[in-house]
């Protein structure tokens, strides 16, 4: 009897291998040949799941963004709007090894998306959704009855996104987590100064 293959599982395995190779050696390390070798597939087997490297890159990008969104929504949101905001901000900062590794993958993929319109559109949509969610959380946490599109709220959401992206970039230079206390201190300052 022929072996039944779960093709969706195979795709997830290939994406996991691509992510691992990017973490270890950057975007250039995730070649079709290295992915096939690391995954233990025959040479032609990879094309059955992904026709080219760009399709693997797109799937890896989507996977990392989905993991990030899952991290944000991993816990039941606190009924306290301030704690819900804290949770969401901390979920996007490189505060553990898993998130530091994910930052490495995201940064490699961001660079690639500059020359790939499909990936750029995917990331822009992610940024817009992230900004919207963050603005809603900030407006609720400030407790002033402001709408999520109030200028002060939008400005603060932009600041948080900018700091988060910067923290993910600098985490690459400190993969041992040396900057984690600094990132936690930022979250504490943000929460203290939320009403300003």
From TrEMBL:
UniProt keyword Transcription regulation present: yes
Pfam families reported in the protein's UniProt record: TetR_C_6, TetR_N
UniProt key word Secreted: no
GO molecular function, one term: transcription cis-regulatory region binding
Segments of the chain annotated as binding DNA: 31-50
Ranges of residues in domain HTH tetR-type: 8-68
Keywords on record: DNA-binding, Repressor, Transcription, Transcription regulation
InterPro entries: BetI_C, Homeodomain-like_sf, HTH-type_TetR-like_transc_reg, HTH_TetR, Tet_transcr_reg_TetR-rel_C_sf
Protein's name according to its UniProt entry: HTH tetR-type domain-containing protein
Organism, scientific name: Streptomyces silvensis
């Amino acid at each position: 009897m022929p072996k039944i293959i779960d093709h969706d599982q195979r795709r997830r395995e290939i994406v996991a291998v691509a992510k691992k190779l990017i973490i270890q050696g950057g975007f250039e390390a995730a070649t079709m040949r290295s992915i096939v070798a690391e995954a233990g597939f025959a040479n032609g087997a990879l094309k059955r799941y992904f026709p080219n490297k760009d399709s693997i890159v797109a799937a890896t990008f989507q996977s990392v963004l989905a993991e990030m969104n899952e991290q944000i929504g991993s816990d039941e949101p606190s009924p306290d709007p301030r704690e819900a905001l804290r949770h969401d901000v901390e979920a996007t900062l490189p505060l553990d090894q898993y998130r530091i590794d994910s930052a490495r993958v995201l940064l490699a993929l961001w660079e690639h998306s500059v020359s790939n319109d499909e990936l750029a559109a995917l990331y822009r949509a992610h940024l817009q959704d992230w900004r919207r969610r963050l603005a809603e959380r900030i407006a609720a946490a400030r407790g002033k009855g402001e709408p999520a599109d109030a200028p002060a709220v939008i400005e603060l959401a932009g600041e948080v996104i900018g700091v988060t992206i910067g923290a993910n970039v600098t985490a690459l230079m400190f993969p041992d987590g040396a900057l984690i206390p600094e990132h936690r201190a930022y979250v504490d300052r943000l929460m203290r100064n939320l009403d300003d």
